[in-house]
Amino acid sequence: xxxxxxxxxxxxxxxxxxxxxxxxxxxxxxxxxxxxxxxxxxxxxxxxxxxxxxxxxxxxxxxxxxxxxxxxxxxxxxxxxxxxxxxxxxxxxxxxxxxxxxxxxxxxxxxxxxxxxxxxx
Length: 121
What we know:
The chain is mainly α. 35% of the residues lie in helices and 7% in strands.
């Protein structure tokens, strides 16, 4: 599978966090199984499941992607390595997304305004 980070680049291996020991009121998430895409009526069924998940829960989990666990874990390793970098490194102009220019890919630092909103200020 192609990657923007060559497999030869050594990265610290991402470790899945352990399950929490806190008793939390978890919400059940819809599970969307993409492996049914090519089955008879699969596209329509997936579209309905996705619409329900987005409208009812706002979130969903995807399985049946065809990606191996190793490929998924590599992506988590890449993301973790990127986000552990100093802000100055992540916020370089060539890595930054710019919604005003229609560029929705890249890094966008959390603004102090957004942090204030999240804190209820």
